[in-house]
Amino acid sequence: MAEHIQVTRSLFDEVMVPNYAPANMIPVKGEGSRVWDQEGLEYVDFAGGIAVSSLGHCHPALVSALKSQADKLWHLSNVLTNEPALRLASKLVQHTFADKVFFANSGAEANEAAFKLARRWALDVHGEAKQEIISFSKSFHGRTFFTVTVGGQASYSDGFGPKPGAVMHAEFNNLDSVKALISDRTCAVVLEPIQGEGGIIPATQEFLQGIRELCDQHNALLVMDEVQTGVGRTGKLFAYMNYNVQPDILTSAKSLGGGFPIGAMLTTDAFAKHLKVGTHGSTYGGNPLGCAVAEAVLDTVNTPEVLDGVVAKERLFRQRLEAINETYQVFSEVRGKGMLLGAVLNERYQGRARDFLLAAADHRLMALVAGANVVRFAPSLVITEQDIHDGMDRFEQAVAQVVNAG
């Protein structure tokens, strides 16, 4: 008989590596944009598992896909292919610029594959001299050693010994800073269409278009990390579609699985062919369970109803935040697009995003931060108007609590 374990928050401190500091409450159940903890207290979820739960908690289409596939096949390895993986890849190819797909388990793994592909293509076609990767300060691309080095936050990559070389960082939305670094030695420019962890900072049209032109001039690949912005998050299937600027490689994860771990790298035939048999792989990447769930996510999200709904929900979020700000004067602006928004704290509240996060939790609202000065919202793409209003009522109470505490 299985041993009964008393699960409390203190158990985390006993048995888990201390690289996280989770909240004191432990969620046990979710439905839509509501979550319940061990005490039965109900929370409104504006965090979405950090832009992951694209259809909320326990969406019927996802539950059905998972249960159905669970009775058929779980894992095969890549010695064999499987039907869900092929269906999902076909749909991703059909609805994007891409011709080919590689599946992984996370955004970091998708980015790892993208960066390796860019280097491999450059080596095959242009030789060893062409290996430099240009990324941007404040960017985030994952926690593997390669992806965290390409990411533009040294505090995440320092302290683990020698870093992968030939990686440099320009300034986001500053084309001149890229021109100063780019050369025929550059194999790729890597960016998020909206910087997520860096503070919900959208690329300008001119910047993204300029980067595309620079990449073309210098024979470099444009890699777009759409781990946080992809699969409907901005009101288009992928954020590059808002700009009409096409990447050479695109990465996706988070919303793609709606809570089930899956990542994908998308690219064209010209570049895909450089990952020949044996050059890269993933034990679980493209497993039938993950692909079956992701296919259900894609089928549900990639509809005018859901994508147009994201745009309408953004308007409601912005209206409510504006009204709160008129009363309490805490934000300088609201940045972002669709269901990826950042309320930027004004000068009086610099560095205090975490105070607003903790106050929100006091009022049973799950929110996020993006750096020390931005409160981030990344809820379900299908969150109801009622849940938005309920959540915003709670957020208003949280703002009042921080303001009144001084």
From TrEMBL:
Pathway(s) annotated for this protein in UniProt: Amino-acid biosynthesis; L-arginine biosynthesis; N(2)-acetyl-L-ornithine from L-glutamate: step 4/4
EC number: 2.6.1.11
Domain of life: Bacteria
Binding site for pyridoxal 5'-phosphate: 107-108, 140, 225-228, 283
Modified residues (N6-(pyridoxal phosphate)lysine): 254
Compartments, record wording: Cytoplasm
Name of a matching Pfam family: Aminotran_3
Gene (name only): argD
Family assignment from sequence similarity: Belongs to the class-III pyridoxal-phosphate-dependent aminotransferase family. ArgD subfamily.
UniProtKB keywords: Amino-acid biosynthesis, Aminotransferase, Arginine biosynthesis, Cytoplasm, Pyridoxal phosphate, Transferase
Organism name: Alkalimonas collagenimarina
Cofactor, free-text remark: Binds 1 pyridoxal phosphate per subunit.
Subunit record text: Homodimer.
Cofactor: pyridoxal 5'-phosphate
Gene Ontology molecular function terms on file: transaminase activity
Protein name per its UniProtKB record: Acetylornithine aminotransferase
Protein residues bound to N(2)-acetyl-L-ornithine: 143, 282
Miscellaneous: May also have succinyldiaminopimelate aminotransferase activity, thus carrying out the corresponding step in lysine biosynthesis.
Reaction(s) catalysed by this chain's protein: N(2)-acetyl-L-ornithine + 2-oxoglutarate = N-acetyl-L-glutamate 5-semialdehyde + L-glutamate
